[in-house]
Amino acid sequence: MRRFEDRIVMITGAAHGIGLGIAERLAGEGAAVAVADVDAAAGERAAVRLAAGGTQAVAVTCDVTSGESVAAAVAAVVARFGRLDVLVNNAGGGLNLPDLDELTDDDWHRQIDVTLMGVVRCVRAATPHLTRSPHGGNVVTVGSINGLAPFGSVAYSAAKAGLRNLTENLASRCAADGVRFNLVAPGTIRTRAWDDQPDSLDRIASTIPLGRIGRPDDIAAAVAFLASGDAAWITGVTLPVDGGALLNAGRVFRDSAARTR
Ligand SMILES: NC(=O)c1ccc[n+]([C@@H]2O[C@H](COP(=O)([O-])OP(=O)(O)OC[C@H]3O[C@@H](n4cnc5c(N)ncnc54)[C@H](O)[C@@H]3O)[C@@H](O)[C@H]2O)c1
């Protein structure tokens, strides 16, 4: 499948993990890819690797907690490729915060800043370009099943929950401009975010109905679908990609290490 021929895609947090998997998938389907990450060195390495495989790829330094940084990154992508067709909001993750009783206001602000406001900043900068896409622009945001059910990690989960409502409002508001907004909600995915908790991964794997921990390419396949023309009549949806974990919501995971995600 080459669903992204002649498509310019910007992916935040694409230097590692799920974002890198999305970059590889969309590049494999013909996209020109901007790797937008606060980790400039790893972003550069990812872009060089994509380019070696024949992709038009560029690394742009982007910190989603700064409006100036995001605006400069989007401007750099448009300067390099001439336009922007797809934005994938993936940057961030859980901040390894304490449990509810010990969370400070600053903890809450920091988590919401990267997870929810980071997406707001990227959408604000990218949407004027997406409305001009000849293909019909679209945005896919990476949320979490934590935003859909009570798995713990309250600040992270509340911020991820906000992404669902944000996606629905943006989808409704921007439909007339031909810009679609959708949300993918991963379950537990093996990335470096779990490196220090191998035992938790084993325990979680045993509770997942489809029998294994997810991989970045599981998420990339869903993002590719929603960002492609195959989803041209889909906007405002949330697609869980979790091996069936939501079927266990609030029961199996309640006191497990999933609290930290
Ligand atoms: N791994 C999981 O189990 C899991 C589950 C559900 C949702 N998610 C979500 O998937 C996304 C990717 O997570 P991952 O597991 O691949 O983590 P990861 O740490 O492997 O990758 C995160 C990427 O985001 C970048 N990043 C962090 N802060 C940034 C900032 N302020 N500006 C720009 N880039 C920034 C990092 O440099 C890194 O490249 C996150 O939104 C996370 O919440 C992950």
Automatic annotation (TrEMBL):
Q: Which UniProt keywords apply?
A: Oxidoreductase
Q: Please give a single GO biological process term from the UniProt record.
A: fatty acid elongation
Residue spans making up a coiled coil are: none
Annotated Ketoreductase domain ranges read 7-192
The UniProt entry, under InterPro entries, shows: KR_dom, NAD(P)-bd_dom_sf, SDR_fam
What Pfam families is this protein classified in? adh_short_C2 (PF13561)
SUPFAM superfamilies hit by this protein = NAD(P)-binding Rossmann-fold domains (SSF51735)
List the SMART domains: PKS_KR
GO MF term set = oxidoreductase activity, acting on the CH-OH group of donors, NAD or NADP as acceptor
Which NCBIfam families is this protein grouped with? PRK07231.1
The Swiss-Prot or TrEMBL record describes its family as follows: Belongs to the short-chain dehydrogenases/reductases (SDR) family.
Name of the protein in question: Oxidoreductase
Question: Which organism encodes this protein?
Answer: Spongiactinospora rosea
The opening ranks of the lineage are: Bacteria, Bacillati, Actinomycetota, Actinomycetes, Streptosporangiales
